[in-house]
Amino acid sequence: MSTFPATRLRRLRRTDALRALVRETALSLDDVVMPFFACPGEGVVRPVEGLPAIAQRSVDELVLAAGALASAGVRAVLLFGIPEEKDAEGSGAWNDDGVVQRALRALRAEVPGLTLLTDVCLCEYTDHGHCGVLDGDTVANDETLELLVRTAVSHVEAGADAVCPSDMMDGRVGAIRAVLPETPIVSYAAKYASAFYGPFREVAESAPSFGDRRGYQMDPANGREALRECALDLAEGADVLMVKPALPYLDVLRAVRERFDCPIWAYQVSGEYAMLRAAAAAGHLDERGAALEALTAIKRAGAGTIVTYWARDLATWL
Ligand code: PBG
Q1: 118 C-beta closer than 6 A to ligand 1
Q2: Using a 6 Å cutoff on CB, does residue 119 contact ligand 1?
């Protein structure tokens, strides 16, 4: 082992060019996905306080924003929907004329180069805000599977390139795979019951009306269990494994990266975005610097691709 003064690690930090030559991790627009929230109506851009610069958009507005995003170099979006009406089953999720389905058809036609991913879950569509149908006070796993399958199929029929089940029911990947043999499945495999989803639930109007999601999403205290979730989803036919949230779970991301050879993604969630935005707005830190550092850390830990609300800004920053 060489030591000082023979070894001086500062030698390679002298210039921008030298630093770039030895940099281990790089952010690329190829590796980010931008979330979008489709809502009913026309000409609607409804911002939410907790998620600055992100908004609910009617399909026409969403097409404009996605077109601009694609022109700026971002290649993929993840679609969520806020339906006209909610019910106990979440039937708006698989409605052929639902917001996400209409957004998919419009985007297919108007922004042909863009890759369209959809979040497959019921929480935005159920009147109780849980991610599946209820049996008393608990979410009924097996009864929910059938509804998730219907939702995934309707997304694919409307033009989705890939589906992303985020509900955390056991067996959902296998159920979807059985009817969609050709569709890429990006599984939210290690998805935690996190406090960092707060601003998302504001924009997606999906906060549970009672209780919480700890009966189906993972306990933040568990790392090894994430590997079991991932192994099951891969065995059921998932193509991509996602870890969510990202920054507070870099250890999980690294462990998943080391264990599995498939693409590993991370979701830098709404709370991660909102807290840096709020600190920047208050003048306590530089948004660009902090966002780029957080995104780089997520890549360094093992994410190949990151779902991030900064995808649009990244197109300007890089
Ligand atoms: C749907 C879903 C959620 C998020 C993505 N898909 C919310 C939740 O599980 O309550 C959160 C994303 C974010 O916070 O940015 N189940």
Answers
A1: no
A2: yes
Q: Give which of 75, 176, 83, 86 is closest to 128, Cα–Cα.
A: 86
**pLDDT at residue 1 above 80?**
no
Output the pLDDT for position 31: 97
Report the relative pairing of strands 45-47 and 55-58 from DSSP bridges.
antiparallel
> pLDDT by residue (tens digit) across 154-184?
999 999 999 999 999 999 999 999 999 999 9
Per-residue confidence at 50, pLDDT binned at 50, 70, 90? confident
Could you report the per-residue pLDDT of 107-119, keeping only the tens digit for each? 999 999 999 999 9
Domain ranges for the chain: 26-317
Architecture of domain 26-317: Alpha-Beta Barrel (3.20)
- Could you identify the atom of ligand 1 that is nearest to the CA of residue 269? 15
Going by C-alpha positions, the residue among 169, 150, 304 that lies closest to residue 239 is 304
On the question of a cis peptide bond just before residue 83, with omega within 30 degrees of 0, the verdict is: no
197 Cβ closer than 6 Å to some ligand 1 atom: yes
Atom of ligand 1 at shortest distance to CA of 131?
16
User: Which distant-in-sequence residues (6+ apart) come within 8 Å of 188 by Cβ?
Assistant: 164, 165, 166, 168, 242, 244, 267
How far apart are the CA of 260 and the centre of ligand 1, in A?
Answer: 24
Is 244 labeled as catalytic in the residue annotation?
Answer: yes
Q: Among residues 121, 126, 112, which one has the least CA distance to residue 169?
A: 121
pTM over the 0.70 mark: yes
